[in-house]
Predict the structure.
Amino acid sequence: MSDVDDRATGRRTLIVIGLVLATALALGFVYATRRVLVWAVVAAFFAVALKPLVDRLQRRFVRRRALATLLVFLAAFVLLTILAALILVPLFGELGRFADRAPELLREARAGRGPVGQLLERTGARRYVSDHSGQLHDLGGRLRQPAVGVLRGVVESVAGLVTVIVLAYLMVLEAPRITRGLLAAAGDGQGERLRRVGREVSRTVTGYLTGNLLISVICGALTYAVLALTGVPFAAVIALLVAVADLIPLVGATLGAVIAAGAGFLHSPTAGVVVLVFFVVYQQLENHLLQPLILSRAVQLNPLTVLVSLLLAAELAGLLGALLAIPAAGIVQTLLREYGPRRLRPAPPAGPAARSGRPDGPTD
C-alpha cells in the first residue's frame, strides 16, 4: 500500500513540476514574441472593426470576398491619405516659408530685434546662449549620436505598421473560413451561441471606434472655435492635428494641447494662455464626462466600468492597454453574459401572464 501511495505522490509531483515548467515556457515565449503578439492584437482589433463593412459590401455589391476586402482596405487607405494631405500640405508650406525666413529671424534674434529676439531678451535666453555657447555646441554633437537609433526606431515602426495592415487584411479575408471551422468544432449546440458572441464582439469594437471618432470630432471642433476666436492663424489645420492626436490614448490629448498652445503662444501670449486654459478644462471634461458617457453608450457599458477599465488598463499595459481597455471590457461582459453563472444573465421580459400573476399555458 505504501508503494502505491509513493508512486501516486511521485506522479503528482511530476505533474506539478511539468505544469510549472510549461507555465514558465509559455511566459518566456510570450515575452520573446511580445512585439509580434502586440501587432497581432492590434491587427485583430482593426479586423473586427472592418469585417462588418466587408460583409455588407459582399452581400450587396461584390460576391468575391477577396475583392470586397481589397475595396474596403483601399477606401480606408484613401481616407487616411486625404486626411494626411489636409494636414501635411499646409504644414509643409508653412515650414518652407519659415525656412526662407530663418536666416533673417536668426540675425534678428542675435541682435535682440524682432518677435523672437524680444522674447529671448525678456526671458534672458539670449544672454544664456551667449554665455554657454560651447556647452550647447557639445550638447548638439551628443544629440546627433543617437541618430542611428532613431532611424532604427522609424524603420521598425514602418515595418510594424505594414505587418498590422497585412495581418488585418488576411484576418478579414479568412474570417468566413475561420468562423466555419470554429462552428464545426463547437457542434450544433454551441453554434448559435458562438454566432451571438461574435456579433456582440464586433458591435463592441465598432461602437468603440465610432465613439472615439465622435470624441475626436468634438475636440477638433471646439479647438477650432477657440483658435479662431483668439485669432491664431491656420486654426483649421491645427484643429485637425489636435483631432487626429486625440485618437491616441493616454498621450494624444496632451500632444494636441502642446501643439495648439504652442501655436497660440507664437501668435500672442494672451492667445497662448486662453488656449492653455481651454485645454486644461476640456481634458478634465473629456476624461471624466465625454469618454464615460459616449463610450458607455457605444459599447453598452456603464460609465463607471468605462472609466475604471481605462485607468486600470493604462496602468497595467500603457498605450496598448488604453487602446484595448473598453473593447476588452465589453468582450468580457459578453462572455460573462453567455457563459457565466445564470444570475449574471439578464432576466427575460415579463409577459402578460407573468404580470398578472398567472402561469403561461392552459389552466383547468
The two ends are 65 Å apart (CA to CA). The chain has two domains: 34-123+159-186, 191-344.
